[in-house]
Amino acid sequence: MRKATAVVGVAALGLSLAACGNGSESNNTTGANGKPTLTFMLDWTPNTNHVGLYVAQQLGYFKDAGINVKILPTAQAGAETSVENGVANIGFSKLTDLANADAHGADLKLVFDLTQKPIARWCSLKSRTDIKTPKDFAGKTFVTFGSAEQSASVRQMIRFAGGDGDFKTATAGTNTFRTLTSGKGDFAGFYANWEEVESQLNGPALNCFAADKWGVPGNPDQLGFAVKNSWLKNPQNVANLKKFIKAARRGYDYALANPDKAADILVSQTKTSHLDPKLARASMEKVVKEGYWSGNGMNDETTNGKPDQKLTATLNTEDGQKYLDFQYNAGTYTDSHKKKLARAPQAAELSTNKYVE
Asked: Of the candidates 152, 79, 206, which has an alpha carbon nearest to the alpha carbon of residue 328?
C-alpha cells in the first residue's frame, strides 16, 4: 500500500510546517514557451492511478490547455506535506489523508476524485487455507506501516465477519509479498488495480477482501488531486487549476477508451520505474472492467448493457463522510498533540467539485 510515505508525511507535518512556514502561495513559474508551469507530486511509484497525467503530458493535452506540467516523484515526506509547503502546486492524495494532514495543521482540499469505488484490498496468500473470511484474520499478524486507519478497518472487518477484532502487527518491509511468503506476517493491504493484478500475473496468488463488503462504511479510497486552500486565493492559480483538471480528465478519458495504448504511454514515460508492460496493460483492463473511475464496470447494470466509461471525477461527500465518521469513532483522527478531535473531519470542507467542469 502507498501508506509508507503518507505515514511519514503526517508524522513529519508539524516539523515541516514549523521549518517552512506556510510555503509559497503562488509559486508557479513560466516555461520557455511563455506558459505557466504547474508542479504535480505523485503519491507512490508511478502506476495506472497516474496514467491520465502521463497521457495528457505525452499527447499534448496540457499544452493544448495553455499550461506546462512537471510531474514530480513522490517525496519521503509525502504529497500532502509537499503541497502544504509549496514544494508542489498539486499532489495526488486521498480524502482520509487530507483529514489527517489538516488535523495536524495543514490546510488542504481535494479538488478531483479519480476512484469512484474502493480499490484497497486486504489479502492473505491463497495457500493459507486457514483464512477463508476476514474472521480468520483474528489472532494473526497484519503486515502494516503502522497506520491507525488501516488497523481500524481491519478490526471492523474481523468483527463484522464474527471475530473478536484482535490481531498482531508486523512492520512491512520493502516488499509486502516477500514479507507474507517469508512467514513473518499473515495478511496485508494491497491495491486491487495494481498488486492484486501483479499477483494474478506473477504470483504468489492472493485471497482478497474488500472492506466495504465486510462492514466498513462509505468509500475509503477517494483518491485524487489535492491543493492548498490559500493557493486557491490567487485567481490565476484557480484558472490554471481548471485548465490542469480539464486536460488531466481528457487524459483519463483517453485511457478508458484506449487502455492498452494508455498503459504503453505510462511505461514509456516512466522508464526509470521499470514498469512491467504486461502489468500496466492488465491493470488498465481491470480498471475498465471494474469501473473504478467511472463507477460503472462491465459487471454493473447500465443503460443498454453498456457501462459509461467516461471519468466521473467528482467526489461523493456522502460516501466520504460515512467513512470519515467511522474512522473518527474508531479514534483514528487526532490533533498535533495526539488528542481526539472535537468532531469528525467533514468531507464537504475537505473537498470541492467546483473546479471539475
From this structure: 152
214/135 Cα distance (integer angstroms): 10
Residue 10 is which amino acid?
V
Residue-wise pLDDT tens digits, 305-326: 555 678 999 999 999 999 999 9
The string over 205-230, giving b where at least 16 C-beta atoms fall within 10 Å of a residue's C-beta and e elsewhere, is ebbbbbbbebbbbbbbbbbbbbbbeb
Instruction: Tally the C-alpha atoms within 13 A of residue 101's C-alpha that lie toward its C-beta.
Output: 34
Structure confidence at residue 306 (pLDDT): 57
- Mean pLDDT score of the chain: 90
Judge contact between 249 and 113, C-beta under 8 A.
no
For 182, counting Cβ atoms within 10 Å of its Cβ (0-12 exposed, 13-18 middle, 19+ buried), the class is: exposed
pTM, two decimals, is 0.89
In the chain, the amino acid numbered 95 is L
Let me know the angle formed at the C-alpha of 53 by 47 and 58, rounded to the nearest 5 degrees.
105
Rounded Cα distance between 109 and 354, Å, is: 12
Distance CA 307, CA 256 (A): 11
Distance CA 143, CA 228 (A): 32
End-to-end CA distance of the chain: 31
Amino acid at 188: A
Burial of 233 by CB count in 10 Å (0-12 exposed, 13-18 middle, 19+ buried)? exposed
Residue 21, Cβ neighbours under 10 Å: how many? 10
Q: Which residues contact 81 (CB under 8 A, 6 or more apart)?
A: 9, 12, 13, 16, 75, 87, 101, 106
> What band does 4 get if pLDDT is binned at 50, 70 and 90?
very low
pLDDT tens-digit profile of 169-198? 998 877 888 889 999 999 999 999 999 999
110 strand-pairing partners: 226, 351
Give the three-class secondary structure for 125.
strand
Burial pattern 339-352, b for ≥16 Cβ within 10 A else e, equals eeeeebbebeebbb
CB burial readout 268-305, b (16+ within 10 A) else e: ebbeeeebeeebbbbbbbbbbebbbbbbbbeeeebeee
